Amino acid sequence: MIADIILKVAAMQGEEEGNHAYYPRPSLAGPERCIRQMVFWGMGIERQALPGRAVMIFDDSSFHEDLTGDWIRKSAFQLHSEQMKVDVGEKYGIYLQGSIDGIITDLTGQDIHFEHKAINHFTFQKYWAGEIPLDYISQTCLYNLGLKKDNPDIRTSVLLVKNKNTSQYLEYLIDYYGDTDNAIIRERTNSQGETIAMGEVIENITDNAFQKFAQVQDYISKKTLPKRQYDLDSWRCDYCGWKEKCWDGWEAEFNELKTDEMLPSDIADMVRYYRELGGQKSDIEKEYDALKDQIKKLMKDNNMREGRSSEYVCRLLLQHRKEFSVPAKTFEKLDIRKVKEAHNANGSVQG
């Protein structure tokens, strides 16, 4: 009665909301946002509606932001100035403004700019593994730039990224220097309490955003399209409302590409190395799988599903994977961690 209608309602609402006009805004800033998509949008070309399930996945980010805010208020930190509008400024004929997620005042009375993002598990795992959320950091620095007009002493921003599936968090401490337009990602902390010093410098971070918006406007004015930023099989294309229009006629374009040409000379070493890595990868994967099977067999032969070997803890885990329209599959996974890692992940370890 409800299960079969709720996603249809979400799809209808998503179709209505998806028709709002393009304009430059900090949430679209950053190098990862597809510039071709922005040009389609700016030209007013109709987009394909997203499936209802996708609309619902994107829709609950503000709900997670409210939840996080409630938990912050229960701590010693003060969260205020939520959704306060800031005037980022104008450059290259592009004017930007937006609303910050808030300002946090710490125990020493220092104000820190706060931005919150709630994302899916797939993307979160990439950031957990070390990839930098460049678009979010660009947006954060643009807001910081606007905040400096009212509070020049605010230099530090905290970008808090939440995994909507698991409630894990990643926190990025960012110092933005308006005089040089450089951002320094000082450190990254995860919800297990692990802090990694980064010292990653991103130069000209807000200027690059303004330039990108200016490029989009130039393409729109000339009614031309930039080159595709991503491959056809990219997940970004799968979630883009202009995918069909963007890739329409690609097969004909592909067939027109040149053949029997000499590649640039600087590619030769890359091609040779790629081939060598391919051979090594195959051998390594075979050896890796064989070792995994041997470890699992030895553990089962000794009627064990968890045990300690030197500085490592080995576990056999049962996991369930649910595929669309397919019954859930149960499979065994071998998990090997150092003793300290295992303690953090599971509380206590027998050994």
Textual characterization of the structure:
This protein has 351 residues and is α+β, with helices and mostly antiparallel strands. It has 2 domains: 3-210, Lambda Exonuclease, Chain A (Alpha-Beta Complex); 269-346, no CATH class. It is built from 12 helices and 12 strands. The protein has helices at residues 3-17, 35-42, 52-59, 61-73, 121-128, 134-147, 205-222, 235-238, 243-247, 250-256, 268-301, 339-346; strands spanning 78-80, 85-91, 94-99, 102-105, 111-119, 156-163, 169-177, 182-190, 195-202, 306-309, 312-323, 326-338. The strands form 3 sheets. A 7-stranded mixed beta sheet has the order 1-4-5-6-7-8-9, sandwiched between helices. A 3-stranded antiparallel beta sheet has the order 10-11-12. β7 (169-177) and β8 form a beta hairpin. The longest helix has 34 residues, at 268-301. Residues 347-351 have low confidence and may be disordered.
Quick description:
The chain is of the alpha+beta class.
Task: Supply database-style keywords.
351 residues; alpha+beta; Lambda Exonuclease, Chain A; 12 strands; globular
Q: What is the percentage of strand-forming residues?
A: 25-35%
Q: Write down the CATH topology of the largest domain.
A: Lambda Exonuclease, Chain A
Q: Given the helix and strand composition, which structural class is it?
A: alpha+beta
Total helices: the number is: 12
Helix content: 40-55%
Q: What is the quaternary state of this protein?
A: single chain
Compute the average pLDDT.
85
Distance between the termini: 52 Å
**Count of domain modules:** 2
What's the CATH C level of the largest domain? Alpha Beta
Enumerate the strands of the largest sheet in spatial order, edge to edge or round the barrel.
Answer: 1-4-5-6-7-8-9
Catalogue the unreliable spans: 347-351
What is the total tally of β strands?
A: 12
SSE string, helix = H, strand = E? HHHHEEEEEHHEEEEHHHHHEEEH
The biggest beta sheet reads: 7 strands, mixed
* Named CATH architecture of the largest domain: Alpha-Beta Complex
Q: Radius of gyration, rounded? A: 24 Å
